[in-house]
Amino acid sequence: MMTLEFYRNLPDKQCKECGKVMDEQHECYVQECEACLKNDAM
Ligand SMILES: [Zn+2]
Hints:
This is YhfH family protein. Pfam families: YhfH. InterPro entries: YhfH-like. By secondary structure, the chain is an all-alpha fold. It is built from two helices and no strands. 38% of the residues lie in helices and 0% in strands. The protein binds zinc ion.
């Protein structure tokens, strides 16, 4: 279960706007979830 341990050691990445936990595979430089990014774009 190496993969499970790997993910367990990662801190939860949360959207800085709404606090939603995001997928770690999301671009690492993005600190907002897709919903908040769309709001910013408008
Ligand atoms: Zn958000």
